[in-house]
Specification:
homodimer, about 240 residues, mainly alpha, Ferritin_actino (chains A, B), Ferritin-like (chains A, B), Ferritin-like fold-containing protein (chains A, B)
């Protein structure tokens, strides 16, 4: 298991009293505990769908076949649908969509730029891995929002993302190009690091002690497991 | 009025017997008379929506504001929805979608490349003018298909295209940039010529006499009028 957030090496562990933070760290920690407020949540979740869409639209423009364009078009349509539904939630929560999304665009655009990769295959696996990862992340984080919002948002976010059709095209590409798998495996690992950093920036810590920082890694355990399953599905080592 | 298809100048009109073609030429000629077979029609109509989508997705990626991305996203979603519905019609008509679209991709991709323009505004007005033009064109052409297909296809093609939201952003840009209008007017006229050539390639002529060629221009009269209305709506001279 890769350690996504490095700890200082050689830190000396002194015996001390158990604080509330230590207790939390030894329990199963949920992402929901670090949920931001509703508008901050919606601004990020809505913009991330646009980012996924922009990556998919580039994948469509560069697709090698018409069949691939049509198939991947479905995934692009789904991400635009989620984006629009989340924008409607911003309005319903009393926010102005563009104002609510704007604080996050720079970081996501930067991620999108990096995540394009150097060719069609890398862009494809980004589309496949990132749609799943961010949907998972925001669904879990949404549990920390007021109940009436949470249920609606979970329905929007956990809707279909076109993952299976992307997997199908990736699998065909890997089968046809013997050396593609190691390159895509490497790309997937690198991308995971970048996605974790983007995701982490959404979390709100109750206080800024080192022990709350240390709680961050466990909350990603299930997301990492899901990422590993997506890689495994293509026969790639996560 | 610009003559889109030039006639040889100085042609001498000799008195002759009225042929069937001459009669048609003096009547109101409908595009429906030149409809190709159903699969050829669907292949073109489905791919043109992908082309419109690719242009829109580039417009979204380069949009100056988050609000514009969201608003134009709706238009992109609509074009993908039409594409998917038309692909389903290909399957229903017994065709293989990619095979049916493939003969037309090169010409449409070439149009898309030209129609991108040199900046965001030209790409925007292409999106605005071409979605309307091609929907109009295929709706009219569909009248020449068997009745049971025609009704369904007209419903798909005449569905919303996001034209009003594109017009809104274009109007704001024109209002803010005094010299933009003449550049966009010029671009709109050039684009119309390119769209007419793409549209014309779909038509099937019953025979290759000069008189059927001469019929082509009148069938575009209503499309040209609609294009002029779209230009007028932005205060641009068509």
């Amino acid at each position: 298991m890769v350690k996504w957030f490095s700890h200082k090496p050689g830190r000396i562990e002194l015996p001390r009293l158990r604080s509330r933070s230590d207790i939390l760290a030894t329990e199963k920690v949920a992402l929901a505990e670090f949920a931001p407020d509703i508008l901050d949540f919606l601004g990020r979740a809505a913009y991330v769908q646009l980012m996924i869409f922009e990556n998919l639209s580039r994948v469509i423009a560069n697709a090698p076949t018409t069949a691939a364009k049509t198939a991947i078009g479905k995934a692009a349509e789904l991400s635009l649908g989620k984006h629009r539904a989340l924008v409607a939630e911003i309005t319903q929560a009393g926010g102005s969509p563009a104002e609510v999304m704007d604080p996050f665009t720079e970081a996501f655009d930067e991620f999108e730029r990096i995540a394009r990769g150097s060719d069609w295959y890398e862009a494809m696996i980004t589309a496949y891995l990132s749609a799943g990862f961010f949907d998972d992340f925001y669904v879990r984080l949404a549990k920390g929002l007021p109940t009436e919002s949470h249920t609606r948002l979970a329905t929007i976010l956990s809707g279909e993302s076109g993952e299976s059709v992307l997997a199908e095209y990736l699998q065909a590409a890997i089968d046809a190009n013997p050396r593609l798998d190691s390159r895509l495996a490497m790309w997937g690992r690198r991308l995971m690091g970048d996605m974790m950093l983007v995701a982490r920036s959404a979390l709100v810590f109750p206080d800024h002690t080192r022990s709350t920082e240390a709680q961050v890694e466990p909350v990603f355990t299930e997301l990492i497991a899901a990422h590993t399953r997506r890689m495994d599905a293509l026969g790639l080592t996560a």
